[in-house]
Amino acid sequence: MKIEIEETKANDRPVVERLLQLYLYDFAEIMGGDVEADGVYHYISLDETWNDPLAHTYLVRVDGMLAGLAIVIERSHFTGATDVTCMDEFFVMRKYRRLGVGQEAATRLFDLFPGRWEVAVVAPNTGALAFWRQVIGEYTGGRYDERFEESDLWHGPVQTFDTRQRA
C-alpha cells in the first residue's frame, strides 16, 4: 500500500470541498447537525483558510486514490502564536481507516513542520481522541502533554508536543 500526502494547488479546491462534505457527514454522527436546504454542510468554509499563507491543505492518497485530507496551520488555535503548528482538520475516509493510513499521514505532516504542535479534539469525538493519543504517543515516545480546554474557543482535550524531541 503506497500512502502519499501532497499539498494542494489552487485547482484542487473543489476536491477539498467535496472531501470536507464527507468529513462533515462523519462528524454529524458525533456532533449532530444536518445539511442545509441545498443539501450541503456549511459548517466549514475554506474561504479564510485557502488564502491564509500560514495554512496548508494536503490530500492523502492510497495507491493513487483519494483517501483523505489534512489542514495544517502554522499558528496556535488558542494563542495565535506562530511558533506552534496546529492540526486544524484531519480526515481519512472510512475505507482507509485502521490500515495505518492516518498514522502515516499524521507522522509525515509532523515531520514536515518541525517544532511545537497542538492537536485539539472535540470532547465527544472519543474515536479521534484515542487515535491521536496512540499516534502522538508513538511518535513522541509518550512525551506529550494533554490538557482539557474549556473556553469560548474550544471544549475538549488538546495534545501538545515538540517534534524535535521525537522518540
- Largest sheet strand order: 1-2-3-4-5-7-6
What's the total number of strands?
7
- State the order of secondary-structure elements, H for helix, E for strand: EHHEEEHEHEE
CATH architecture: 3-Layer(aba) Sandwich
Tell me the number of helical segments per DSSP (H or I, 4 or more residues long): 4
- Taking Cα atoms only, what radius of gyration do you get, to the nearest Å? 15 Å
Q: How much strand content do the residues show?
A: 25-35%
Oligomeric organization of the protein chains: single chain
Percent helix among the residues? 25-40%
Mean pLDDT: 93
Distance between the termini: 25 Å
Largest sheet: 7 strands, mixed
Q: Which structural class do you get from the secondary structure elements?
A: alpha+beta
Q: What is the number of independent domains?
A: 1
Which term fits the overall shape? globular
The CATH class is Alpha Beta
CATH level-3 fold name: Aminopeptidase
Question: What key phrases describe this protein's structure?
Answer:
single chain, 167 residues, alpha+beta, Aminopeptidase, 7-stranded mixed β-sheet, 4 helices, globular
Q: What does this molecule look like?
A:
This protein has a seven-stranded mixed β-sheet with strand order 1-2-3-4-5-7-6, with helices on both faces. It has a single domain, classed as 3-Layer(aba) Sandwich (Aminopeptidase). With 167 residues, the protein is of the alpha+beta class. Helix content is 31%, strand content 30%. The protein has helices at residues 13-31, 46-50, 101-112, 126-140; strands at 3-7, 55-62, 65-73, 84-92, 116-120, 145-150, 155-162.
